[in-house]
Amino acid sequence: MFKYLPHTKLDIEQMLQVIGVSDINDLFLEIPDSLKGLDLDVPQSHSELEIYQRFEELAQKNNVLIPFVGAGAYDHYTPSILRHLVERQEFLTSYTPYQPEISQGTLQYIFEFQSVITELTKMDVSNASMYDGATATAEAMFMATNAKKRSQILVSKTVNPNIINVINTYAHYRGLKVEFVAMKNGVTDVDDFTQKNSKEYAGIIVQSPNMYGIIEDLTPYRAILDETKGLFIVNSDISSLSILKAPGEFGADIAVGDCQSLGVPLSFGGPYIGYLATTTKLMRKMPGRICGVTTDSDGKRAFVLTLQAREQHIRREKANSNICSNQSLLALFVTIYATVMGKQGIREAQQKSVNATHYLANQLEQKTSFKGVFKQPFFKDVVLRSSVDPTVLEDVCFDAGFVGPLALERLDSSMKDLYLFSATEKRSKADIDRFVTVLEGL
């Protein structure tokens, strides 16, 4: 075991002495003897053809299921060109572009990613390297409390519970207090927000389309927040902004959310990529990487990492955020998708998803025990009510080759009998009709 270690025997003895261990094998005492020296029964080598055949046999054991659930992760189509390009070695194996002179390609597509985000959000600037929409939202909370020197934040109860869990975790370890604004008829209760809003809070976090797929009216918030100089943080599925009014048009200070719906496969829950965009006034408070464009000594266009505080990478205790890993491969996914699809293509994919979800909801209400709950306009998620047992429903759907809907009581015990459905442009009329037929039997 020492053969591949650069340490000398003396080095190892000194390290063991420091940690109070007499023998290096004592480091592995926690591993049960039954797991040591296992005969893994590794088969003999095979030809390429035999390997392909073996993996095809294994693949036949998989159940390929059709999802009718969203809640923040959507089964949108990924054009084949995406995988072809992102798996090129210069993209797949590259990491953090600290040396701009040899990282121009990586820096350029990060810049293009930021450009896509600012165009969709109508914000001044965007960064890169956000892990997902939930952590991006928590980072926005840090930005707001840091900028306003306030230790409390308001969050709408219509925000996805998974995002709220991340916000609470981040807040706990920064000593921040999270207060919630009530939900009323599936949307944020603006009257409750007006009563709670004060100079104690750095601002409010609102999601639209929200957890229930409902499109929130974000118009009132700017004027209410101006009274207390609070910040307006809007979480949105980025693809929805190809159709809906952008956060910047509502006067948002920070726009955040997930980019998974722009070409990133479901992949059993990740990896995904978030976005964070803000105003020029707040851009120096942004975490993650920010790529800019300039000209070099020869007058040629050049891309650089810019506005990066030294604390971001070295003096971590003084940093606004400790985001370090580079998300550029996922940013490339999004950038290629946006380029290939174009404005019209993204809009059409989302409109087809909206149409499919509305058709699904109508068919379920007409032919099954599921009935509508909220009256507000919804996007590509919809909540319906039924007294059917969640476990029975999930088993029936699974046996028929479907995943979904999501029983909301699994996230919130007060949401008993409520189910969240979703459909995308990949769901054909035949798929939806077959799914509805399965639920008719309940």
In summary, what is this structure?
The chain is of the alpha/beta class. The protein is 36% helix and 15% strand. The protein has 3 domains: 1-35, no CATH class; 66-77 and 346-440, Aspartate Aminotransferase, domain 1 (Alpha-Beta Complex), CATH 3.90.1150.10; 80-336, Aspartate Aminotransferase, domain 2.
General description of the model:
The chain folds into 3 domains: 1-35, no CATH class; 66-77 and 346-440, Aspartate Aminotransferase, domain 1 (Alpha-Beta Complex); 80-336, Type I PLP-dependent aspartate aminotransferase-like (Major domain) (Aspartate Aminotransferase, domain 2). 36% of the residues lie in helices and 15% in strands. The protein has helices at 9-19, 48-59, 80-86, 89-92, 104-121, 133-148, 161-174, 190-196, 221-226, 328-367, 390-399, 429-440; strands at 66-67, 125-126, 152-156, 177-181, 183-184, 187-188, 201-207, 231-235, 254-258, 274-278, 291-295, 301-305, 371-372, 381-385, 402-403, 406-407, 418-422. The strands form 5 sheets. A 7-stranded mixed sheet has the order 2-10-9-8-7-3-4, sandwiched between helices. A 4-stranded antiparallel sheet has the order 13-14-17-16, covered by helices on one side. The termini are far apart. The glycine cleavage system is composed of four proteins: P, T, L and H. In this organism, the P 'protein' is a heterodimer of two subunits. It comes from Candidatus Xianfuyuplasma coldseepsis. Residues 3-438 form the Glycine cleavage system P-protein N-terminal domain.
